[in-house]
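Blinded run. Sample ID left blank on purpose so nobody reads anything into the name before looking at the predicted structure. Input follows.
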Amino acid sequence: MHEEHEIKNRILTRANDLFMQYGYSKVRMEEIAISLGISKKTLYKYFSNKDQIVRQLVYNAKCEVTERIDQIIDDENVTYVEKLRNLFDFIGTQTQKFHSRMIEELMRSHPEIWREILEIRKKHTYDRMSKLIKEGAEKGVLRSDINQNIITLIYIGAINTVFVPDSFEHLSFVPEPVFKDIIKVIFEGILTDSGRKEYMNHSSEVIHEETIER
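Blinded prediction complete.
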């Protein structure tokens, strides 16, 4: 059982690398098998076609991302502002993964799979972000005079824009720093005076630590 699990993971890892590099449609099942040094028969034992491989990759990515976001939001060993910073840094790094040949191709040629990705992201993001916004308001870090649902919707809209490859097709923008700038605009506007001060102090500490590491 352990060996079969290991082989399946090897197939998924290699297929993902090939899809990202060459695009979904240009990679054949035979090429995946050859690159792994296994027979097509062995490959088809675990996956009947490329769609099945992609769906498993999407499911695995969903589990990995949602688990990490849950860990960040539920972390009781950091301040609320640190929690915000950790969350935005993590999501910012994820934006790069959505700007690849594989994702662009899924959007255009396999809209049903792309819709699944959007639905997974939309539901989880709304639920978890709503919880985080509510926590911030209760702790006095976020302004209480702004509708929490509106804040959540604006945040989700920003994510949807940054995570869609077409958004940057004709612009010389890089997704990750753009996302961080958007978040800065949104959250500096909804932080209370004390929350903004804490946020800026934490940002300065992070920059100082990064400078020392270099």
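Unblinding after everyone has recorded impressions. The chain has a mean pLDDT of 77.
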